[in-house]
Amino acid sequence: MEGIKQKPTLIEALTPIIFLILLLATNVYVFGNDAISGSNQMVLILSASIAAVIAVGRLGLSFHTITKGMLHSINSSMEAMLILLLIGALSGTWLLSGIVPAMIYHGLNLLNPTIFLFASCLICCIVSLATGSSWSTVATVGVALLGIGKTLGISEGIIAGSIISGAYFGDKMSPLSDTTNLAPAMAGTDLFTHIRYMVLTTVPTISITLIIFLVWGITSDTSAPVDISIVQGAITKEFNISLWLFLVPIAVISMIIKKVPALPALFVGTLLGGIFAIIFQPEIVSKIADTQGNMAKIYYIGVMKAMYGKISIITENAMVNDLLTTRGMGGMLNTIWLVICAMIFGGVMETSGMLARITEGVIRMAHSTGALIASTTGTCIFFNVTAADQYLSIVVPGRMYADIFKERKLKPENLSRTLEDSGTVTSVLIPWNTCGATQAGVLGVATMVYAPYCFFNILSPLMTMTFGFLNIKIARIKKEEIEKKEVGNVA
Fold first, then answer.
1. Across the strands, what pairs with 326?
2. Whole domain around residue 394: which residue ranges?
3. 487 domain-assigned
4. Does residue 288 sit in the same domain as residue 406?
5. pLDDT digits (tens, 9 = 90+) for 116-130
6. Residue 157 in contact with residue 450, Cβ under 8 Å?
């Protein structure tokens, strides 16, 4: 690392991590689900301070170098934070326009409690596979499914688990996904070889996940606590429910399928939501605006309030009231605060060379193919925990292990598959990771509440390690391929 006068020892590198883990555990015990409201952020800052003291006092780095590392880390997550803000605004206009209520209304006709978890996971699989985005899937279809599931009397933790399981299946497998393109680029293979090789571990994993949700629904008490018609009646009394409203989510999904970047796609979806709110729900817009003046001013204020702040649609049914509440952009600021603090910690750890020092010892202990794949898996999860960023959990281990896989005569698709099986899917299980913080904020369900039910995300790294230790479908570089490459290099 540039500017480091002395390489950190393993104890020095582990000290901030141990400090972080101990204080985070304390936060969970003391604050419970409210830990994300500020205490976790402070723990990340305190842990970054410990790392910075070691970097300056022991390793000889200047504080200027550390600051540059922190700013670089924050900058790498800037797009994710902008997407978060737009998701907040989109959720506001989609509620105001009646899009989300319409999804809930019609969804109650199609989904019964017995198959709900299975169906919600499968629906999110299809949508995320088509769009390549777990975030867009959760923020649109996922939010509606959560409302439907809660109305059916199902625990919000397991509903969120089924939604996230399906959403991250597509994030992992879709050729439109950024991580699906990033992993083979880091490992040194092509996109479609990577996808074909992932099928071997991913199909069994999602099959097991769907079976779990199906059995869960069949064996659970499926009696809904309220009459569905009462919920639908409360919605139709306040909203003009029309199939035309579905044009907006169809437009957003179509843009993403056509590879329109997430930021403009979500922005257009937000504006369309506002326009449809004025067309279909003018009375609700006026009520939210709560002001006097000409209609143009009233509509402008009502739509703007939905974009930036908390709005609630009050009905005769208390349960429906809980479903018809959104926090807008302002509701995402706490999550963005957490992301910034996580990036500060990750930036200090990476700039000081502490993360690299910890992983060096892991590499040296990986003697067999199974151990190497397990080490790669552990390293990806480690970076999700410490660097708090999904992309870093793919990029850094990908760079670290690429040469070692080649030395062991293992084709690069082994590495790219492992990166996705562990780095992509486990990010959402970490409360302070950008993915975990985002999905908790979007769904309004704490990470530690939904994490135990994200069966696809939990099983994926276990599946890839099982394939490694049992030597199942491990692609190896053949002698003739090496000779052919050497001849090509000479030529």
1. 311
2. 10-77+332-449+457-480
3. no
4. no
5. 999 999 989 988 886
6. yes
